[in-house]
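Aim 2, interim progress: modelling of the flavin-adenine dinucleotide-bound target.
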Amino acid sequence: MAAALSDDDRMILEAVEKWLERDVRPHVLKLEHADEWPEEMVGQMAELGLFGATIPEEYGGLGLSATTYAMIVEKIAETWMSLSGIFNSHLIMASCVTRMGTPEQKAEWLPRFATGELRGGLALTEPDAGTDLQGIRTRARRDGNGYVIDGTKTWISNGIHGSVFALLVKTDPEATPRHKGMSMFLAEKGEGFTVSRKLEKLGYKGIDSAELVFENFRVGGDRLIGGVEGKGFQTAVGGLELGRINVAARGCGLASAALKDSVQYAQIRKTFGKKIGEHQAIQLMLGEMATRARAATLLTYDAAAAYDRGERCDMEAGMAKYAASEAAVANSLDAMRIHGGYGYSKELHVERYYRDAPLMCIGEGTNEMQRIIIARQLMERSPA
Ligand SMILES: Cc1cc2nc3c(=O)[nH]c(=O)nc-3n(C[C@H](O)[C@H](O)[C@H](O)COP(=O)(O)OP(=O)(O)OC[C@H]3O[C@@H](n4cnc5c(N)ncnc54)[C@H](O)[C@@H]3O)c2cc1C
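Predicted structure of the complex, ligand included:
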């Protein structure tokens, strides 16, 4: 797969790997356990161009293929998965503008997203609606040339440190089908837009997840992505294929990190006069872990390649996301078993993989939904 990379792609990947070794790995444990926003690393990510990774070059981005993007995300997640969330939700917001924005919106927003001057994320989920996005209640009412927005969003990544969000609302709550009454706005923090609280969570530390409240929040009509009401659902779900490839790549990174740490430890730790890697019980686990990690990576590259060819790939992205996230969960638990008591220690990375992995089963569409999507696609592609 690496053979498909251009020289430029290879250079970017190498620069990211060097940065991870030099500036990230030595600080992960401290930042993770302090749940501290990695300010300095965010600046370094901007210098590397990561905030513009998938933004087209004509708007100042790197214009990377999904394949190269997936490889970068995989490497970052192998070192500290939280960092990938800081630029990935930002890039999903940017992709809403790239795919659906007016020429004026692209020219105004994308160059500032690409440099990281403006950073943000995607605000879809509400306290009463996650998987069933069409059940959201946040409402935008027309008011002169603009809109007034009221509602609450929850679990929004980058909610505290980001300043602008692709915000999914209802412009016509009575519409049938429901998605025809949905629109997406670019909401920049200001009067009427507050962060009500930071949400405490099991893992995914360092990156902020927050609840956002909109009360009488006014936006100009020029903030309606695409300039036409009723396209919000399409704007939100249209980015999901790339979003799922990204979550799959994070799962691959975690599965591979758990494997690498275990392979090392199995050759150092001794019991009953032997390295534990010489016990067959440990070998069985390592063999299983390596196979899961490899299968997850191949499925992820397969989905990314289909995306790069411009093919419909919701089934492939769903399979990759499902397989890679489950591989991350299984490998992180096996890594903990292999490390014995040390796997449970906060002095090593293994317990973090175990806390981070389950999020990959939830984000960008739960794994229950992935299997349903795969099954529906199987029947659609092979009608009886
Ligand atoms: C750390 C973190 C970060 C997040 N970041 C963001 C973000 O940046 N932006 C954002 O908008 N959201 C974000 N989310 C929210 C996330 O996308 C949702 O949690 C996810 O979509 C699931 O929605 P839910 O939690 O409401 O679960 P629900 O939709 O209530 O689902 C509960 C259970 O029911 C199952 N289920 C639901 N419907 C069906 C069905 N039709 N058939 C079978 N099973 C079904 C689900 O699979 C799940 O097992 C984040 C969440 C977390 C935990």
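The chain has a mean pLDDT of 96. The first helix runs from residue 7 to 24.
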